[in-house]
Amino acid sequence: MSQKKTTSSPNYEQLPMQINVKIYRPSVKGPILADASVNLNGCFAVRGVQVKAGKNGPFVSMPSRQVRSGYRDICFPCTPEFKRTFDQAVLEAYQMELEHGLNQRQEESLDGWHEHVRKEKTIMKRKLAFCVAAMCLTMALAPSALAVETTASSPSTQVCYPTSVSRSEDGTEIRKYYDLSPEDDPAGIPRSDFEQDGFRYTLIDLLKQELPENESRQHTETVSLQSKSKDMESVLALLPPEKEFITEDGLSGTLSLQLETVNVEAAGYGTSTREVSATRSYPNLANQDTANIPKTIEEDGRTLTLQNISWQTDNTASVGGYALGDRYTAVATYTGSATSSYVTGYTVTADYSGTVSRIALNQVRYVAIFEGTPIQPFPMSEEGTPLNFDWMVLLVPFGVVILVSACIGGALFLRHRRESELTEEDLHD
Questions:
Q1: DSSP string of 144-179, one letter each residue
Q2: Distance between CA atoms of 278 and 293, rounded to whole angstroms?
Q3: How confident is the model at residue 73, as a pLDDT?
Q4: Mean pLDDT in runs of 10 for the chain (429 residues)?
Q5: How many CA atoms lie within 13 A of 412 on its CB side?
Q6: 391: which DSSP letter?
């Protein structure tokens, strides 16, 4: 592929590039993770940019149109440097939208937790009003079960956002991938616990991986298309010798057709019905009685039904001076239908193989591994109030109340018994 070199005019001053990105419908699942609109220096807008999921994390896909040889980008960065800048701006905006949505869900969950705590306290105050004094004394000493964990971070450390997130099928592990440049500080990678989808996740390991500057590998892509004919010449006319492909993880290259892999199969079948007929002759009949003619016959494995009869006179006799026929031939016509099947079309599959590659950023990958623990749900009563409660908060003050009551009751019993003994002694005296 030949490259044309162009030089910029010295009369134009190169301005610093300001890239503003707006993310729509961000998601962590699916082949398309988000749609993006990019504004360059406030004077040129690019719409139709997509963030797609790849094997090595999210990548940026430019607007493209379908051509005969595949897909071709409509607009795209012309230098590797600006491509890195452009892709990094889109991916950072995507990760910020994901983090914003996660923080919002955590805040909503925290508000619901506080509302749950408030209802618990109200219910318990109504039911246990007689031991308020003892509970106030002991709850001041008991550790709080409702403390909110906060993590202090250095104001000078910039928070890092993951380039991709993967979650195990059972939800017990989440891996966050951070592709950082040499200027980024890995101390900005969040390490605090968080809650998501009924699990509480705790960091158990942080791995470091060196990414290669250039990445290339062999790739095979299988294409499938429809053909009206199974003739190999017609089939090969539908398959170009080379095609440009872009993999899910953003590697691109020109792949060649593997002729030995071309396969043609019937895509479907249809049926057609036509009318068939047959003729039978029955000679030397004594009369023209149709009862002597078979009503059906077998022809090429099909059953035909009698449709028409024509009579021919074979012999005549003179009766009273008149010639009357005494022998006849019946020519019977039978009709029926024949059904046949035909191929409606063909499906052609073939493999394209070759080398795909991309220029990777000078980055270091960090993998934060979080282990998930299921959060016990709060069962609800018929009135809609939570039934679950930390009974340890009650057992401690209740135990103190029982202990104090037992001590007071024992003291009163001993005092009453002593007074009774003194009264009996006075009576005896």
A1: PTTPPP-----TTSPPP--SEEEE-TTSSEEEEEEE
A2: 14
A3: 82
A4: 46 65 82 87 86 86 80 84 88 86 66 65 59 53 41 63 86 89 85 91 88 80 90 89 80 90 89 89 83 87 89 70 71 89 89 84 83 79 56 65 73 67 52
A5: 6
A6: T
For 290, residues 6+ apart whose C-beta sits below 8 A from its C-beta are 309
φ, ψ for residue 317 (rounded to 5)?
-130, 150
Q: What is the three-class DSSP state of 402?
A: helix
Query: What span, in angstroms and rounded, lies between the C-alpha atoms of 26 and 105?
Result: 14
Note the pTM of the prediction, 2 decimals: 0.32
Q: Take residue 380 and report the two structure tokens written for it.
A: 């609800």
Angle at 97 between CA 59 and CA 366, to 5 degrees: 55
Do 88 and 361 form a contact (C-beta atoms < 8 A)?
A: yes
Alpha-helical (H) ranges within 204-297 are 232-238
According to DSSP H, which parts of 63-174 are helical?
80-127, 132-139
CATH class of 19-95: alpha beta
Torsion angle of the four alpha carbons 288, 294, 299, 303, in this order, in degrees rounded to the nearest 10: 130
Residue owning tokens 């095979």: 220
DSSP-derived 3-state class of residue 389: coil
| Cβ–Cβ < 8 Å for 14, 79 | no
In the block, tokens 């199969």 appear at 265
What's the number of CA atoms in the CB half-sphere (13 Å) around residue 80? Answer: 7
H or E segment to which residue 320 belongs: none
For residues 232 and 230, give the distance between their C-alpha atoms in angstroms, rounded to a whole number: 6
Beta bridge partners of 71: 66
- Domain span(s) for CATH 3.30.1120.40 in the chain: 19-95
